[in-house]
Write a structure and sequence with these properties.
By secondary structure, the protein is mostly helical. It has helices at residues 2-14, 19-31, 39-46, 50-63, 65-69, 85-96, 108-117, 126-130. The chain is elongated, with a radius of gyration of 24 Å.
């Protein structure tokens, strides 16, 4: 940990780190102290949750200091896919069309499944993430 500690000290001293990376580095440095604080005290002192302290330590054991501090950016940036005009048009057309298997009305799960089948969206959960506020998947979609 000596090389890692030196890297962490340099990282926190540079002052140009992203605040989340800086806090993860602080957690690792505090964890290496001989008279270290408990998780609750450490979390309060750094301004994070106890879960963040625990998860940072766990990640360090698996990946090391640099991988823990410099996490990879999410590919999706945490933002759900946007509904473009093409997907919206297909969704409206489906909702207005006859249902498969002689079902009386469309339900959201059926619509999402059809959009996945047509390769217009990546997953079944897409509809719920992208169109918040819609009724639950078991509820019926009113036909126009």
């Amino acid at each position: 940990m000596n090389d890692e500690r030196a890297w962490l000290e340099h990282f926190t001293g540079a002052g140009s780190a992203h605040h989340q990376a800086f806090k993860r580095a602080q957690i690792l440095l505090a964890t290496d102290e001989p008279n270290r604080m408990g998780d609750a005290e450490l979390a309060k002192a750094i301004g994070v949750s106890k879960a963040t302290v625990y998860n940072t330590r766990r990640r360090y054991l698996a990946l090391g200091a640099q991988e823990t501090v410099n996490r990879k950016a999410r590919k999706d940036k945490g933002v759900p896919e946007k509904v473009d005009g093409r997907v919206e048009a297909h969704l409206i057309a489906l909702a207005c069309s006859a249902t498969p298997n002689e079902e009386p009305v469309w339900i959201l799960k059926m619509l999402a499944g059809k959009l996945v089948e047509l390769e217009l969206v990546a997953s079944m959960s897409w509809l719920e993430r992208t169109l918040p506020g819609l009724p639950a998947s078991r509820e019926k979609v009113r036909q126009v």
